[in-house]
Amino acid sequence: MVKEVEIKLLRESDHVELMVDEDNKLSTKLWVESKKLWIVAGPAIFTRISMFGIFAITQAFIGHIGNTEMAAFSLVFHVLARFSIGLLMGMASGLETLCGQAFGAKHYHMLGIYLQRSWIVELGFSLLIIPLFIFSSPILKLLGQTDEISEMANIISLWYIPVVYSYLFSYTLQMYLQAQSKNMIITWLGALSLIIHAFLCWISVQYFGLGVPGLMISMIISSWIPIIGQLIYVFDGGCPLTWTGFSIHAFHDLWPVVKLSVSSGVMLCLEIWYNSLLILLTGNMKDAEVAINALSICLNVNGWELMLSFGFLAAASVRVSNELGRGNAKAAKFSIMVVVSTSLAFGILIWALVLGFRHSFSYIFSASTEVADAVSELSILLGFTLLLNSVQPVLSAGVAVGAGWQGIVAYVNIVCYYLIGIPIGVLLGYVAQLGVKGIWMGMIGGTMVQTLVLIYFTYKTDWEKQVSMAQAHVNRWAIPSQHESGSGTNNA
């Protein structure tokens, strides 16, 4: 009897130890995955904050020059610039898929070739964007904007063309370096450009009185500083495994890169243009200047939070693509859970801060009490947007890019944004006469539907099948390396 009791107690003890080991194993996995996440997300967040900070600083200085100048700059950035950002950054996300999966499969030399192919493809597509900036005034007037704001926007948009070309190299180099977790060089250069930009803006406006042209010159200089630094880093031996010099192979198999880049560009464009339409629809209302400025400030705050989300989506993309390239489906799923949970926690924190300071944060960008009152009224909707944006971009542009689902997500965006969100927003804004609030409420509804669809899609995905597809892509496009001692031709 005593022996049976001892055996029973031993079995219970083993069971308790097993549970403790499982708990420790889970906590260890969380710790290890979180470290991998922050290696990518930390520098990526700071880099994107630095990039967005250049716009935010410029907007703050322009806002104190005049309401017309601020409204014009907001239109240029949120409509024309975001159009180009959506296309070029979206196309670069195709490079992120290729580089991430190739790096996970140890086809290191292919990253440099993919980078060169992406430059060729994006340079061609960028030529299609420039006429939008040259002829921005008639385009904006055709879209219902006032003559005064449109003419000022045309002046700003011409200055913006060199900044557009900086995006081409900035996003492709970021995707290439992120796939290797070489983010710190981007971070330091981004911080340097932000400091220089703030100083140049202050000097050009306060001491030389150059106004808008002075601010735009500062923006051009600050946008190209990180690119020059990153090119020096890559060409001068910073990536010895993945950059082996310019190659004729960059001109081969361009069509698959074009297809992936275009599907990636369409996916992200549909998402970024969604908010741009919010600005355009607002410009057709009464008191458009105040409404655009208030909405622009809200979208500015939303943009800061999106920089956090973009950092987390970069981590999701790199982690998912690396693990799929290595053939580890379980690790890919676990990384998704960790990054979504972390991003949501930050979203809740920012949501609370915005609601707490909703009556005062607008004065950073404008001294107008009318604008401040309008921002305060929109702050509740801004809070809901911030919560959604802490999850939605990580799934739509992070997990989707890592797994190569760009084409599928593009269709989801069309349905949720343009067949659900915008029609409801127009009905609430114009028919129900709720104004900006109604338009924004409808668009939040579209984003919510899209988020739920992506959560369901991610949950139902066969990740083992995704592993097979990723390895098939890597092996099909691999070119034997002449510079690596066999490492570039190993299969995962």
From TrEMBL:
Give the main localization category.
Answer: membrane
Identify the keywords attached in UniProt to this record, alphabetized. Membrane, Transmembrane, Transmembrane helix
Q: Which Pfam families match?
A: MatE
What membrane topology is given? Multi-pass membrane protein
- The answer to whether keyword Signal applies is no
GO-annotated molecular function: antiporter activity; xenobiotic transmembrane transporter activity
| Listed GO CC annotations | membrane
Span-the-membrane segments of this chain are 37-63, 75-98, 119-140, 152-173, 185-209, 215-235, 336-358, 378-401, 408-432, 438-459
A Gene Ontology biological process term: xenobiotic detoxification by transmembrane export across the plasma membrane
Q: Where in the cell is it found?
A: Membrane
**Which PANTHER family would you find in this protein's record?**
MULTIDRUG RESISTANCE PROTEIN (PTHR11206)
Q: Which family does it belong to?
A: Belongs to the multi antimicrobial extrusion (MATE) (TC 2.A.66.1) family.
Q: What is this protein called?
A: Protein DETOXIFICATION
Q: Which organism is it from?
A: Macleaya cordata
Question: Which taxonomic lineage does the organism of this UniProt entry have?
Answer: Eukaryota, Viridiplantae, Streptophyta, Embryophyta, Tracheophyta
